Amino acid sequence: MLGSRHIRVNAVAPGAIDLPGEPREAGLGAQFVSQTALGRLAIPQDVARVVSFQSGEAAGFVTGAVIIVSSVIGRERERRADQNGAGPVGLLMPATSRF
């Protein structure tokens, strides 16, 4: 329905984000990091890069996608998202190219 009006709908679902200066429980960051594939938590710039890609020309034919920005492995990520009530952030963006 939206595609016929050249509107793409995608979502970015961030996982655990390391926010400098934000207080956290002792050991919580280390607990998350120990379960990541990349050995670190995401930072806000990691999420911003995905949003930038989704809204740019390179993603002009991407629609209906959810990109998870997280290196937390498997079910542990899903369990934490459910517990924290975290959900994807939806994006509506006009298509940049028309047929």
UniProtKB/TrEMBL annotation:
Region Disordered, residue ranges: 77-99
Taxonomic lineage of the native organism: Bacteria, Pseudomonadati, Pseudomonadota, Alphaproteobacteria, Rhodobacterales
Record-given protein name: SDR family oxidoreductase
Superkingdom to which the source organism belongs: Bacteria
InterPro entries for this protein: NAD(P)-bd_dom_sf, SDR_fam
Organism of provenance: Pararhodobacter zhoushanensis
